[in-house]
Here is the input.
Amino acid sequence: MRHPIADQPGKVLRHVVLFAFNETAGPEEIHGIEQAFSALPGQIEAIHDFEWGVDVSVEGLSQGFSHCFLVTFLSEADRDSYLPHPAHQAFVARLQPYLAKALVFDYWSG
Here is the structure.
């Protein structure tokens, strides 16, 4: 079911992804994952915008999540084509051995 906001001009779909890494993920592995995720916009046309960062909050409420990736789409169809895309699936396979937990949250913004 389409979200009613999806049809409003200027709205974009934000796909927020948070990662907490397990103890086997060293600096090299994490850097490789950062680079691999950052490469997806060049491989998947449906991605409208992309940014990421590492937690710098002083509140101590990150619950182990250290990395946030924000992927922006222009439509639900774009997001839906991204999820099974072979480049995204290859990234997920690379990530899995080092992932303790993930949180994914999508919302309409604009």
About this structure: The first strand starts at residue 12 and ends at 21. The chain has one domain: 11-109. Residues 11-109 form a domain with the Alpha-Beta Plaits fold (CATH 3.30.70.100).
